[in-house]
Structures are given as C-alpha cells and as structure tokens.
Amino acid sequence: MRAIVIQGYQFALDPTPRQQGSLASHTGGARFSYNWGLELVTTRLAQRRAGQDVQLPWTLAELRREWNRAKDEVAPWWPENSKEAYNSGLDALARALKNWSDSRSGRRKGRPMGFPRRRKKHHARVACRFTTGQIKVLPSRKHVQLPRIGVLKTHESTRKLARRLEQGSARSLAATISRRADRWFVSFTVEVERAIPTSNRRTSVVGVDVGVRHLAVLSTGQTIPNPRVLEQSLRRFRRLNREMARRMPSSRRRSWTRRRLARTHTRVANIRRDALHKLTTTLAAEQGTVVVEQLNVAGLLRNRHLARAIADTGMAELRRLLGYKTTWYGSRLVVADRFYPSSKTCSRCGWVKAKLTLAERTFICEACGLVMDRDLNAARNLAKLVQSVAQSGWETQTARGADRGTQLAGQVAMKREAGTGSCPGETGTVQPQGWTA
Ligand SMILES: [Zn+2]
Q: Most C-beta atoms within 10 A of its C-beta, which of 118, 264, 367, 371?
C-alpha cells in the first residue's frame, strides 16, 4: 500500500549577520502578534465579565481580522516582516485558546491546560512559519530560499530532501524558522509518498526502557550504550549547572553561563536524538511489536532531578519516533498504561515492590529472590505485558489501556506537524549533523 505521510526535514542554518537580523525580526514579529492578541482577548474577557457586549476574537480568522484593523497603530513597522510572521503568532494563540477551552469543557484529554501566558523574550521558543511564497530548496544543496529573508546557507547538505523533491516523491508544504540556543534552524514540512506494509508477519515482542547511564535496555537483555560524546557533554552540563547556581542574579557572568548551558543542553539533546533515531529505526524494522512506557509528560519539565528528566525526555522521544516508524515498517507499537508499575514489579513472579528509589539500580525481589538490573527488569515487564495480553485475546484487553495500535500512533506523528504550536526541532527525520555547539 502506498500512502502519503507528513514528514519534517530540519537543517541548521548559517545566516549572515544581516540575515540573522531578519530571522530575529520575523520571530520577534510572531511573538509580538501573539502577545498583542493575548492582551486583546484578556481585555475583552474582562469587559464581558463587566457586562459589556463586546466581540471576543477566538479563532485565527477572527484574530487576524482584529490584527489587520489595529496593526497600523500598534505596530507601524509591520511591513518590515512577511505577514506570515504575524500570522504565526496569531495561529499559535488561536491554538492555545482552543486547547484551553477544550480542556475546560473536557473535550481535550490529558492534563488541564492553563490559560495562555505571555511569551517572554528569553523564555519562549521563537518560531515563524511560512506557508506561501518563495519556499525552495536550491539545487546547490547548500542553500534554501525563504520569502523576505532570501537565500540562506545551510550547515549541512539538503540532498535527502532535495532528491525527494526533484523526483517528485515529496511536496513541500511549509517552512518554519526557529532558534535554539544560538543556532537558527529551518524545518520543512513535506508530504512524502511512502510504501506502507499492511500486514506484519513478525511475531517478536520487545520491551524498551530508556536510561541515563545507557541509552536503552531491551527485554532481550541487550544494552544500547550512550554515545561516547554524550558522556562528555553530560559532565560539562553538570558542571555548568553548578556554576550557574553560584552566579549573582542578573550579572554578566550569569548570562555567559546561561548561554553556555543552553548550548550544551542543545548539544546533549541533539546527540541523544540522533542515537534514538538509529535505535528506533532498527526496532521498528526488525521487531513485530515494540512495547514502551506511557509517560506523564506534563510532570517532566518540572522535575528537578537532572538524571530523571533526561531519561524521561528520552522516553518521550523514543515513543514519538516509534509512533510513526512502526507505521512505516508495518510493526506494532504498544504503550503501557501510565500506572503500570514496570520498574517495581518482579518480572519473574509478579511481586510488586512498595517503593523503589531512583538510586536503586538493581531490582531485588523479596518473594522469589530475583536479582536483576533495574532497567532490564522494567523492559522485561513491558514485553510480558503484551505476551500476556496476546494469550488472553488481544481485542478483549484494550480496556487495560495497553493497546495503542499503529493507526493511532501514526496520527500522533502527523498531528505534531500541523502548526507552529508544535516544535519543529522535534519533527525532523534528518538531524543536524556535522556541527558542534
Ligand atoms: Zn519475584
């Protein structure tokens, strides 16, 4: 079966100082329109509460109408940027407002969404999405063209995408520019035609647990080590974190450390993502069913423990990548219920330990005496979940929350591509290569 899938290709940019100014101006424009719209909505909500009969702009079209009416006055400099910049900001706001109202009315699952907040200069992820105009990957394979900003040099070759576009097996939909730490990226969202296997004859089941001291542990007993460069970056990361704690608030040294920390963080994330890409491709292509853990993603970022935070983001990334790759390769992804105690359960006899701290690297069963590496035990439990479900009839067990078939996983992968609200840095299948932070 052939199917159209949405895929992201991301490239690190090498802009001239002038182009950097233009990139920053566009993402700044997006942030401005977002904050402007948010303030408008907040004011109108207050007016409504006070009993006044005022229009409440909520959708992108309504917000855009209000913006066009007000832009000459509130942002007389608006012609400096493409109108897509302001559209990006308003689009992100409309999504945030919808998420909030859906969450309140129970239409949206998951953690309750807060009312959108202002995007502060140094905290918000800056991005601007272009959907029309001159969006091109140039034949030199070292340059891309964007509306208003012009021809930009890329750090790595664009050949993987360029080849697909030239052959006609991909169609470009949009380009999003974004900045992470000190680096600018462009991410192309394209429609790609792929052959999707409809049936999966492989019967193997593998459970995967992501760790910190190693990249992952499989239920087969195989340990996938961390890339060596990652270890160095992690050490540096810990050192900078300690250094940051000693710096005086709002001092110049503090801002130096903050920038260095941000760069190191990006580097750690990139190395890990690259390694996870390789791992997930192998798993999706070679296994019949892959079982991973469901994570409480909302709690991730608030976790103060560095090690746990890194492992958790790795797990979330692993799951996301497997989501679409299992669809591509015709294998199946099963996500265990969030409350399934994979680390605390004995993989031999099923006894559940009351409390297992992060420092305990070895699982010791008090019922049957099993002694096993903590992550391996967890991975075995994940694999067992599917094996027991398979024995008792797959369909009947979906209520356990164990089944997330490939169909749903595919949708998850696509949904993230849809707008500026998603992170283009995470949608790519091509990772920035050949550069160091
Ligand atoms: Zn046991």
A: 264
